[in-house]
Amino acid sequence: MARPVLTRVKILLAVGFAFVCGWVDAVCLIRYKAFATMMTGNMIQMGYCVIYPKDHPNRIMPDPIFYLTVILSYFFGIVIYRLAEVQLPRSGRVFGPLAAIVVMALELSMAFGDGSIVPQEEPRWIVCPFAAIFAVQNMMTMRDGLKCTTAFITGHLQNIGAFGVEVCRGNTNWEDVKNHAVPFSIMVSLVLGSFGAALWDKVLGTEFALVPIAPMMMVLFILHDFVIKKPKKNKPTQHEQDRSRGNSASGPRPLENDIEKAEAVRAKTSELALRKQGSMYSTRKSKSSLAFDFDEDEDSDDESEASENEEEEEE
Fold this sequence. Notes:
By secondary structure, this protein is mostly helical. The chain is built from eleven helices and no strands. It starts with 6 loop residues before the first helix and ends with a helix. Residues about 250 have low confidence and may be disordered.
């Protein structure tokens, strides 16, 4: 089993991941009017733009198609992470440097590029690779040691509200406080990340806004792998190994063996039931024979007593 992760370690990781999500979403919202980590906002925008399209002369495709592409990119990132998770026990050390390189390359191409990587007339399509990257991050934090989202706060807000009611009623303990420390830290850090990105944009402009985020993501991914250990798979038993060998060697033989075993067990059970019935019948028979012998003995005793009484009367 995986060793338990301390609450303060979870808080530090959650704060880092939530800060990154808040920063990146604020930058993408300022630049492209889209979200890289939260697909709910993109779905709302997709439906809204069908009725109220945003006017832009250089748009390559309509807004609903753009938001749908971002959502599909996020879904693609989920699939990639799951496939890597099956093959790699610690995929964070692979995805961390890769995500940092992609984010840094895209950000520098926005500032110094000639439009060959990111189209200058419509740079909003850069959100698509960002969505795939943060799908990996969200999946990693949800499925592994943190077991919670670092990009969405609606569920955390509900839990903290219910916890506040229980605090007022006096139905909480210190363990409950520690369990709600991580969601509260995520909420605060997400707001701080968006505040930091907005402040960067106001003071320095949107250029190079994602440059400090790239190395931060790499460090967080690698730390996540070292701190949170995934549980090891249990070694298969000898019976499971024999079944797997049978499956690989002869196809449906294990199923036939199971049927034969079931028939043997059924035959043995019926045989035991017949033996039990036979023993019960023999027991009843022996009891009835004993009762019959006892009755005969009583009759013979009565007859002997009657004959003795007659002899005494004759005398």
